[in-house]
Design a protein that fits this description.
- The protein has 135 residues and is an alpha+beta fold.
- It contains 2 helices and 10 strands, in the order ααββββββββββ.
- It has 2 domains: 30 residues; 101 residues, Rieske Iron-sulfur Protein (3-layer Sandwich).
- A hairpin with a 5-residue loop joins strand 3 and strand 4.
- About 10% of the residues have low confidence.
- The structure holds FE2/S2 (inorganic) cluster (FES).
Length: 135
């Protein structure tokens, strides 16, 4: 009876060790890279698009030559989502008036920091889609 109990306890302990170790070895979506996509026709030069990458707001901006760059769109003041203002060419925070230039540099308002650049790669596909992958 005691032997069967100890054997069962040993099996449970082995599972408690093996399951997390097995999860570590198996590639997870997070390790394979996080990605989202957009249609390149929806982002002309000089424009911006607000996307979500793994639930986080990502502002993708297109430069004058059509090159892309991305900033995390979470305001460093209290976390509101910033928006692109095409008429001023600035990024604005609707909550308390934070203003940033098109590169995310703080211009005015209560935010203590610039917007955080996003380490992403853009891959253009033949279909016109652009895949945004986080490094
Ligand atoms: S949350 Fe953006 S200025 Fe306050």
């Amino acid at each position: 009876m005691l032997g069967a109990f100890l054997a069962g306890l040993g099996a449970v302990l082995a599972c408690l060790v093996a399951i997390p170790f097995g999860s570590y070895l198996r590639p997870s979506p997070r390790r394979e890279g996080r990605r989202t996509r957009f249609d390149s026709a929806a982002l002309p030069p000089g424009g911006a698009l607000l996307l979500r990458l793994e639930g986080r707001p990502l502002l993708v901006l297109s430069g004058p030559s059509g090159e892309y760059r991305a900033l995390w769109a979470r305001c460093p003041h209290l976390g509101c989502t910033v928006v692109w203002d095409p008429s001023s060419g600035r990024i604005l925070c609707p909550c308390h008036g934070g203003r940033f230039d098109a590169r995310g540099k703080l211009l005015a308002g209560p935010p203590p920091l610039d917007l955080a650049p996003a380490a992403v790669r853009f891959t253009r596909q033949e279909s016109g889609a652009v895949v945004v992958s986080e490094f």
